[in-house]
Amino acid sequence: MTSPGSACGVVLADPFEGLLGYHIRRLSVLVMADIAETLAPLGLKPSEASVLYAIAAAAGLTQSDIGKALGIQRANMAPLIAGLLRRGLVERDRVDGRSQALRLTAAGEAARAAAWTATQAHEERIFGALGRTARTRLARELAGLWQAGQ
């Protein structure tokens, strides 16, 4: 790193070396920009794809269940689900008096499958330099950190 205004090329120590939060934030910006660009041709945002993945992974989840599992606030979850309903990607099934489970329609399953394939290509593009074992370990360790912070 060169000092601003320095013509002699003085190299300063990296002030962010060892600051995991800084590096995680920079990586997060890169990852989110890439996944948004990857999913855009499919007409999906990352949050919408995440909801499709969650519904496919656990049949019978309610809107509230999905919001809690994904850390999406109720105020943001309602319009997100409304948009997926409007587009015919999900449907509601009455579970009991007020509860309604969400399920993918055939179009929703097709969108989920396409998004999953695109997401796997994104993961390989961003994290391909890491071996499978390293990726699995890193994912487990990062999940442990954010879950402990909740």
Average pLDDT, to the nearest integer? 90
Largest sheet: 2 strands, antiparallel
> What is the CATH topology?
Arc Repressor Mutant, subunit A
Major beta sheet, strand line-up: 1-2
What is the CATH top level name?
Answer: Mainly Alpha
Provide structural commentary.
The chain is mainly α. The chain has one domain (44-148): Arc Repressor Mutant, subunit A (Orthogonal Bundle), CATH 1.10.10.10. The chain contains six helices and two strands. The chain has helices at 20-39, 46-57, 63-70, 74-86, 106-127, 132-148; strands spanning 90-94, 100-104. The chain has a two-stranded antiparallel sheet. Strand 1 (90-94) and strand 2 form a beta hairpin. Helix 2 (46-57) packs across helix 3 (63-70).
Give the gist of this structure.
This protein has one domain: Winged helix-like DNA-binding domain superfamily/Winged helix DNA-binding domain (Arc Repressor Mutant, subunit A), CATH 1.10.10. Helix content is 61%, strand content 7%.
Keywords:
mainly alpha, elongated, 2 strands, Arc Repressor Mutant, subunit A, 150 residues
Topology:
Elements: H1 20-39, H2 46-57, H3 63-70, H4 74-86, E1 90-94, E2 100-104, H5 106-127, H6 132-148
Antiparallel strand pairs: 1-2
Helix pairs in contact: 1-5, 2-3, 2-5
